[in-house]
Amino acid sequence: MLEAVANGLLTGAVYGLVALGLTLVYGVLHIINFAHGALLTMAMYAAWVCWAVFGLDPYVAILPLVPIFFAVGYAVQRFVIMPASQGDDNNILLVTLGLSIVLENAMLAIFRSDTLSVQVPYAMEVIEAGPMLLSFPRVVGFGVTLVVALVLFLVLTRTDTGRAMRAVAKERTGAALVGIDVRHVYAVTFAIGCACLAISACLLLPSFYVNPRVGNAFVLVAFTIVVLGGMGSVPGALLGGLFIGVVESLSGLYLGDSLGQLGIFVIFILVLLFRPTGLFGARA
Amino acid sequence: MIEPDPAFLAVRNVSMRFGGLLAVSDASFFVKEGSITGLIGPNGAGKTTLFAIVSGFQKPTTGHVLWKGEEITARPPHLLARAGIARTFQIVQPFAGLSVRENIAVGAFLRHKRRDDAIALAEKVAARVGLTAELDKPAAALTVAGRKRVELAKALATEPKLLLLDEVLAGLNPSEVRDIVPVVRAIRDSGVTVLMIEHVMQAVMNLCEAVHVLAQGRIIASGTPAEVVATPAVVEAYLGHGAATRLSGKRDA
Amino acid sequence: MKDRQLSLILAFAGIAALVPLFVTAGTWLNFAVFTLILCLAAQGWNILGGYSGQYSFGHAAFFGTTAYLTAVLQTRYGISPYAAFAIGIAAAAAVGWVIGFLSFRSGLKGSYFALVTLAFAEVFRVLANASEITGGAAGTLIKLDVRPENFQFASRGTFFWVVLGMVVLAMLLTRALERSRLGAQMVAVRENEDAARALGVDALRVKLAAIALSAAMTGAAGGLYAQYFLYLDATIAYGTWISVEALLAPIVGGAGTVFGPVVGSIVLHSLSEFTKSLVGRIPGIDLVIFGIMLILVVRFPPRNIPGLIRRWRGTK
């Protein structure tokens, strides 16, 4: 039980990282990105290719993949989502859905539906922490997530870009009036979200698998975390991630694997339904 | 002014607080059946908030709205519409994908289940507000003046007893204002009581029998238009502190 | 104008009815029946999404409910397939009403409504995959017993006509709705909910009527699917694929129109067959095309194929 909680916390940290990108995009762009899961799938395949083709350890693959996904994210927002959305909520919904369909099925066409994984020597290693045995990849994931969150926090608070992002999040028109290039800030935010996904992918791969639908498993979890932690809140995403990790781990323990996911969906629905709508429904 | 009992519409001690802002503060006024009553005041006085409360879109923090003696505070808008209270919006809200005829018919459907009846009523209402020529146009294609008329027609098509008009004249040029003033008067003459928020003072003086002045969330004066504009508090609300004395000083000199 | 609409519906019905007389190859008839079933699912989505403006990403919840009830009631409880089908449709409508009641009461709209419907469908999928009565992960098989009273027909053509009948019925229903008070109120709620409420429209009631009707239609498609393919599992019945299929066709063909879902389904599925014949059966390639179509349609107003044709003809 204690071990389940601890492992849940460790997995939850990576969930939090996945959710971080989503919540950042929501907070600044005020859009719900349905393609987030598919982008994660793409990042996991990229990490797998790095390992299978170039022999790169997934943890090392973080270095090339972060800039690549930053660029991908920037381009996707700038050249696909922004021109198509025209500011309409339903359009954004449809475009990001369309994007996720394209990406997911492009992966299916390229890699087929087989489940792939990487073989790394440390995949099964455990770390003894008092009475508990903790999986090594999860501990690494936890640590890296904390570092990334710290870096992100510093970027948001200490750099001009970060300040611009926060300004745009609060008051878009005002930010534009004082000369901030809102389109650029949007694209950078989306790019940072994708870079977070690249890191998450590299952290997940050693202990997880990849197939074309793997992102789906994460996307609803990420949405749950984001809603739970408060749309747009960075610390909320991390705490929400930890919480959901524990819930998943415990419901897996008590309900079995097939019903384990249910806990998350039910929390998700309940939070959406019973949280006062003013907190997030006001914009629509 | 003495409040008839029960008043046609009575607003009693209504306050509305948004966080730290008191948008409406202990406002009381009433509307006489068959009248055109004006609600005026400088920008940000709380007129639109008060309207939202009367039409059921917002629940006041405290206070009551009474309709023929019956409590209607915070009753949802669709039920108020059914009871006979219709409103227009300051920022006109046409159903963009629909033609003018269909726009008005949405209102007409309230009391007419059958499509033919609703359409027939919509066309009749359109004639009353001067939209007959535009019936087949998409509502989004009209000019500002045209959209204001659609807004008016939609509300009229619900066959209300009380019509709340939120700045139907704002944004119109003087000749358009001149065109629509008799339309409003004709609506009243057909038996519909009108309560209007208005900025165009000339129209208010022209149309309203009774006026209530709202400033900083409070009703600061009530009476006939002539009485109200002679009240120092009203002059000050519009022109700033001390304006009344300065003006009367000038007159004396 | 309106009579032209009616004659177009009848013309479509007449021409489509001829298909089984000329197309006898089993695979092509399968394709035609499958396309029509998806078309019916899309017509359902169109009521809620197209006319009422509430974009659901979880119509699988309705498709799967009727599909499973149609299958399970006859295989486990010996109820006539027709009765099972009818019960299934009513149940889908009820599920739609409940999901709608919970969501709309809480004021969910836009992306949040899409998310919550997606989550509901996933809950159904997980439950169906785990519970015994649906056959769990192994799925449910309807016994092959070809008799009309079993809702099974010796010829695929007969089934085609049955499905076509349902599609045409849905078109006529949509047309009637378009001209009714409820239809006008649905569009008003879509265009501007506050303005509609001010005109006496009970927005909650209208949205609930829309989602129940919508769920019933999409549910009917699920029941027909079960009856035609005689096999279901949780991924087929409650999978995301059907939620996506149901919304694609109306968006591409013209949401909130009688012909939108029909045009959209035919265009999308012909395109996907054409692509397959061109590049071979690469899995996922049809959906890649669908996704690109979706993005393009949203990117370039007037947002759907009939609109594009109209504009193209207009500029000539």
Automatic annotation (TrEMBL), chain A:
Instruction: Print the keywords alphabetically.
Output: Amino-acid transport, Cell membrane, Membrane, Transmembrane, Transmembrane helix, Transport
Q: Read off the Pfam families from this record.
A: BPD_transp_2
Gene Ontology biological process terms, A to Z: amino acid transport
The keyword rRNA processing is annotated on this UniProt entry: no
Broad class of where this protein is predominantly found: membrane
Which is one Gene Ontology cellular component term of this protein?
Answer: plasma membrane
Bilayer-crossing regions: 6-27, 34-54, 60-80, 92-112, 132-156, 185-208, 214-231, 262-282
Q: Which domain of life is it from?
A: Bacteria
Entry similarity comment = Belongs to the binding-protein-dependent transport system permease family. LivHM subfamily.
| Protein name per Swiss-Prot or TrEMBL | Amino acid/amide ABC transporter membrane protein 1, HAAT family (TC 3.A.1.4.-)
At the highest ranks, the source species' classification is:
Bacteria, Pseudomonadati, Pseudomonadota, Alphaproteobacteria, Acetobacterales
Automatic annotation (TrEMBL), chain B:
Q: Name one GO cellular component term.
A: plasma membrane
BP terms from Gene Ontology? D-alanine transmembrane transport; L-alanine transport; L-isoleucine import across plasma membrane; L-valine import across plasma membrane
The record's annotation in Pfam families points to:
ABC_tran (PF00005), BCA_ABC_TP_C (PF12399)
Q: Which PROSITE patterns match?
A: ABC_TRANSPORTER_2
Q: Which UniProt keywords apply?
A: ATP-binding, Nucleotide-binding, Transport
Residues passing through the membrane, by range: none
> Which intervals hold domain ABC transporter?
9-241
Checking InterPro entries in the record gives: AAA+_ATPase, ABC_AA/LPS_Transport, ABC_transporter-like_ATP-bd, BCA_ABC_TP_C, P-loop_NTPase
GO MF terms here are: ATP binding; ATP hydrolysis activity; L-isoleucine transmembrane transporter activity; L-phenylalanine transmembrane transporter activity; L-valine transmembrane transporter activity
Question: Out of the domains of life, which is the source?
Answer: Bacteria
What name is this protein filed under? Answer: Amino acid/amide ABC transporter ATP-binding protein 1, HAAT family
From TrEMBL, chain C:
Please give one Gene Ontology molecular function term for this protein.
branched-chain amino acid transmembrane transporter activity
Q: Which residues cross the membrane?
A: 7-25, 31-48, 55-73, 79-104, 158-177, 208-228, 248-271, 278-298
Keywords (alphabetical) are: Cell membrane, Membrane, Transmembrane, Transmembrane helix
Q: Which GO terms describe its cellular component?
A: plasma membrane
So which domain of life are we looking at? Bacteria
**Membrane topology type:** Multi-pass membrane protein
The places in or outside the cell where this protein is found are:
Cell membrane
> InterPro entries this protein is in?
ABC_transp_permease, LivM-like
What is the protein name given in its UniProt record? Amino acid/amide ABC transporter membrane protein 2, HAAT family (TC 3.A.1.4.-)
